[in-house]
Amino acid sequence: MEGIGGDRAPVASPLPQWGHDTWRMYQYYLDKTTPHTTYRWMGTLVIAAIYCLRVYSVQELEISDGPLLPTKGSDEFKPFIRRLPEFKFWYSMTKAFYIAFVMTFFSLFDVPVFWPILLCYWIVLFVLTMRRQIAHMIKYKYIPLNIGKQKYTGKKASTSGSSLCGD
């Protein structure tokens, strides 16, 4: 009867415990970096520079003989203004550079890209990320273009002598 209703607590396996301890240590050091904005960004710039050097060195080693994507310097870039805390932005940017850097070491992630696939990918991402905003615009009948948009002229002077009570 020891197995049923005993006083012994269940023993956790060492792998999840090690993962939990590692995550706690990681979160501890991440929390300690929060007030040190300048040093965090300097570290991110170092990671970005190492990533750029890695990409440059890989491109120097591999000569591309296939078609390249067209690029234009005249395209205007107008990003959305985000209301994102600086720390979360820094954290996401640093993770992205770190993951991109690690991915450069594996040829599995070196896939050829054809522009129609990029266009379809962009459309899918746009629809998925803008779905809530577009639904909000439709709900409140907001039309971003001024084609057929109602024009407001302001209050017109009332000539009738009616009262507020609605005689």
UniProtKB/TrEMBL annotation:
Pfam families: Rer1 (PF03248). It is a multi-pass membrane protein. Coiled coil: none annotated. Keywords: Membrane, Transmembrane, Transmembrane helix. One of its GO terms (biological process) is protein retention in ER lumen. It is found in: Membrane. Its main location: membrane. GO terms for cellular component: endoplasmic reticulum; Golgi membrane. The chain crosses the membrane at residues 89-107, 113-130. Belongs to the RER1 family. Involved in the retrieval of endoplasmic reticulum membrane proteins from the early Golgi compartment. This is Protein RER1.
